[in-house]
Amino acid sequence: MELQILPLTGQKPRVTDESKLVFGKQFTDRMFIMEFDRPKGWHSARIAPYAPFSLDPAALVLHYAQEIFEGLKAFRRPDGSIALFRPMDNIQRFNRSARRMCMPEVDEAFFFKALKELIRLEADWVPHSEGTSLYIRPTMIATEPVLGVKPADQYFCYIILSPVGAYYKGGLNPVKIWISDEYIRVAPGGTGEAKTGGNYAASLYASTEAGAQGYDQVLWLDAVHRKYVEEVGSMNICFLYDGKVVTSPLKGTILDGITRRSILTLIREMGLEIEERALSVDEILEGAENGRLQEAFGTGTAAVVSPVGQFTYRNRTVSLSNGRIGELTQKLYDTLTGIQYGRIPDSHGWIEMI
Ligand code: COI
């Protein structure tokens, strides 16, 4: 398929003070978009000025939420070059989500080429300061105007870019997490592993309640026993427990996080043992009190490696690492961001230069 590059029609105002960058509120001048019609397939691929598009009010995505997305980042190196972190892993996961949501897959090589071309054109939007990056949001939505519940015959697939700072307002300050015993995110057999908007929409009620009580995020327990840790709103979660790293196994109900995957590799290389098993809420509460649980941290593209300082379950609150970032969490944050920003050589083939 040919990739058309349309001329820019104007430039957006931008945040010039990078210390004021927040997560996902500012977007760059251009976007990538392509369209799908059955039986024609994908067509009209173009890089165009960033602009609203018009959708029929009956578009399927607006009614039955047939939608998927991805999140990856481009990092500015000290020499001015731009590095992408594991982009093909994101593109492959995009296609896995597409299959789960009965949406058409994209041609991975073409999509990667279009993504790189878009970033090349928008290179001056990649911020320079430590802790900032260009967040890349590939998205696919069902556009066919029909009210019957069925997989659409028409789609838009697009990529937008946003220069970002830290996901959490407090940066690397430990987050406070509320463990929900009332609400669940997904059940086995559901769409938990797909990166689809509905999973996030379903999480809003509990996270709003948690936010009102001063918590940063909700930790979801499994839907069957309401006992075992699954994941946190916008990240996977790991625990340093009895000197081993424990994290929920990939069994269809949690996101197969690319940062999770990378962090587990780094942990293995540090010589620590990993247990991918169901950790219970009792183990968290008792472990924090008797010292067996030493650290907890979330992992995600947006969240990077985020220390957890406190958990609350029902009326019980426990603290970790005296409310400070733990030693292992800091080391993992430094190693991962070191590879991303080029301070540490990439011995894993995770980096793709633009
Ligand atoms: C990401 O980490 O890229 C995500 O997609 C999480 C998002 C919901 C902020």
Description:
- The structure is a single chain.
- The protein folds into two domains: 4-164, Aminotransferase class 4, branched-chain amino acid transferase, N-terminal domain (D-amino Acid Aminotransferase, Chain A, domain 1); 175-339, D-amino Acid Aminotransferase, Chain A, domain 2 (Alpha-Beta Barrel), CATH 3.20.10.10.
- The strands form two sheets. Strands 1, 2, 3, 4, 5, 6, 7, 8 and 18 form a nine-stranded mixed sheet that branches.
- The longest helix is centred in the last third of the chain and has 15 residues, at 327-341.
- Strand 16 and strand 17 (316-319) form a beta hairpin.
- The model has no long low-confidence stretch (mean pLDDT 93).
- It has eight helices and 18 strands.
- The protein has helices at residues 60-64, 87-100, 108-121, 197-201, 204-212, 258-269, 281-290, 327-341, and strands spanning 4-5, 30-37, 41-49, 67-69, 72-76, 82-85, 133-142, 154-164, 175-179, 217-221, 229-232, 236-241, 244-247, 274-276, 293-300, 304-313, 316-319, 351-353.
- The protein is of the alpha+beta class and 354 residues long.
- 2-OXO-4-methylpentanoic acid binds at residues 71, 200, 234, 300-303.
